[in-house]
Write a structure and sequence with these properties.
By secondary structure, this protein is mostly helical. It has two domains: about 130 residues, Ankyrin repeat-containing domain (Serine Threonine Protein Phosphatase 5, Tetratricopeptide repeat, Alpha Horseshoe), CATH 1.25.40; about 70 residues, Serine Threonine Protein Phosphatase 5, Tetratricopeptide repeat (Alpha Horseshoe), CATH 1.25.40.20. About 55% of the residues lie in helices and about 0% in strands. The longest helix is centred in the N-terminal third of the chain and has 14 residues. The N terminus is likely disordered.
Length: about 230
């Protein structure tokens, strides 16, 4: 079974159980191989991580924020490809760090979903915002990372000032997503721990009025229940 299939199966199960909107990060679309094969100019250089070519093209007047057919700039492409050197070269050349592609993802959220701590660290150091509202779900990179249990990413985003209690259009916070879309395993528990330690509001409830503690109890996630109860959650 491919590495991608378990996540795809899980997204399908979540959609069946909670409704199609329950797997918000599934809307993120990396460039397909056939798209990459058609890339030219900065998009091709960004995907390949060819810093010298990026610098030459920008010096020659290439549009650093040009869009491909899915609205991706070269910076989005470099982020998807984990090309940190290309990211730095593009930003030096004037790339918009907070640009949104067609599905309304910025580079920070792309790195967060990919669990790519190195590229995320680079983006944040260059001035990218952890506060952007992204995706068709009006979420944030922090919500996406919490959903997936990317605890290291969550800690980086918290340190960068990500809004802890942003409520997306599903009426879920990062804390709620770590519970209802997580698996109750170590990384999701670590995510809840990081959010609670940072001061996330443990009383914000979902549309049905269920608090994070109630949601964790419903699912039998003992580690999360203990953390939330110790923090005074009700």
């Amino acid at each position: 079974m491919s590495a991608r299939r378990p996540r795809a199966v899980r997204a399908l199960v979540l959609a069946l159980v909670f409704g199609a909107a329950a797997a918000p990060v599934a809307a993120q679309v990396a460039p397909r191989a056939d798209e990459v094969a058609r890339y030219t100019g900065l998009h091709a250089a960004a995907h390949a991580g060819d810093v010298t070519r990026i610098e030459r093209l920008i010096a020659g007047g290439a549009a650093v924020n040009a869009r491909d057919s899915h609205g991706r700039t070269p910076l989005h492409v470099a982020t998807f490809a984990r090309q940190g050197g290309a990211v730095r070269a593009l930003v030096r050349g004037g790339a918009d760090l907070n640009a949104l592609e067609a599905d309304r993802y910025d580079a920070v959220t792309i790195a967060a979903v990919a669990d790519d701590e190195e590229t995320l660290r680079t983006l944040l150091a260059l001035g990218a915002s952890a506060r952007n509202v992204t995706s068709r779900y009006d979420g944030t990179a922090l919500i996406a990372a919490a959903h997936l249990g990317h605890d290291g990413v969550v800690r980086q985003l918290i340190a960068a000032g990500a809004p802890l209690d942003h409520v997306n259009n599903l009426h879920w916070t990062a804390l709620i997503e770590a519970i209802v879309l997580g698996q109750g395993g170590p990384r999701h528990v670590a995510t809840v721990r990081a959010l609670v330690a940072a001061g996330a509001n443990t009383q914000l409830a979902d549309r049905q009025g269920r608090t994070p503690l109630a949601l964790a109890r419903e699912r039998g996630y003992a580690g999360m229940v203990d953390l939330l109860a110790a923090a005074g959650a009700r």
